[in-house]
């Protein structure tokens, strides 16, 4: 493997870490309802556990309410129970075939807790990126030791990998700051 291939592999893995951060941040609740908030809820459907989005249609009814429309009539009670028992702290209510999931307004204290959670997620993503930088640098050093790459290649690839790492960390910081701003917006 050449130093360039090592850098490309590291870049790919770092991008995956940033994507994982984006996915985990969508699950953190902000003041506004978002159907993606219910992605973690699983419902029993004929003996197997399926994500809520695979057994019902999720929509925004208004600024504070998510609507869940089950595709089968008998699923309403199971969906309602699954949402209630999830760790999201939501209390759904049925209206005929439609299940309304009102989003309670968040307290200032809860908002501050969630910003801490977001910062923790961001820090975990930064650690993952830095670990990938370390692994890539070690791989290049190993190539130099085995005489498959020159000292100049080592120095050049370390600079490239560091620039890449810095770029990814700036992106993580941007995502975290954006999510904190969403959470603190009333």
UniProtKB/TrEMBL annotation:
InterPro entries: Ribosome_recyc_fac (IPR002661), Ribosome_recyc_fac_dom (IPR023584), RRF_sf (IPR036191)
Pfam family membership, one: RRF
Top-rank taxon: Bacteria
Primary localization: cytoplasm
This protein's UniProt keywords: Cytoplasm, Protein biosynthesis
Subcellular location: Cytoplasm
Domain Ribosome recycling factor: 21-184
Protein function: Responsible for the release of ribosomes from messenger RNA at the termination of protein biosynthesis. May increase the efficiency of translation by recycling ribosomes from one round of translation to another.
PANTHER family cross-referenced by the UniProt entry: MITOCHONDRIAL RIBOSOME RECYCLING FACTOR PSEUDO 1, RIBOSOME RECYCLING FACTOR
Membership in a protein family: Belongs to the RRF family.
Name this protein carries in UniProt: Ribosome-recycling factor
Organism: Hydrogenophaga laconesensis
Taxonomic path: Bacteria, Pseudomonadati, Pseudomonadota, Betaproteobacteria, Burkholderiales
Protein encoded by which gene: frr
